[in-house]
Amino acid sequence: MKKSFEAKKSAKIEFIIDSGAVYSVVDSAILRRLGCKPYRRKTFFLADGTAIERQIGDAYFEYGGVGGAASVVFGEKGDSNLLGATTLEALELVLDPFKRELRPMTKMLIGASPFL
Prior knowledge:
The chain has a domain at 16-93: Beta Barrel (Cathepsin D, subunit A, domain 1), CATH 2.40.70. It contains two helices and eight strands. It has helices at residues 28-33, 85-90, and strands at 16-17, 24-27, 40-45, 51-63, 66-75, 82-83, 93-96, 101-104.
């Protein structure tokens, strides 16, 4: 089967996975090298209450042969590459916190009925 999306540029990135974080964070130099462009800025609050502002764009992520697009924060010096919940959902993955591994998401289509 042919992939529906073939990236002209790609990068292998090691991430910290945080299913409690909404957005993924990738070093801005990597994103720019891949051709990603930010389209807005957003204020985030760190655990100690410090407010920081970062740029946000969209990126295509792939893991285990499954790909999907998600919003991504352009990381700055000192930021870690982080894989957040929206990217996990785009890749149809869930984090098993006990085994500390990624697993395929079990899909349920609400509102669909085989009895109709």
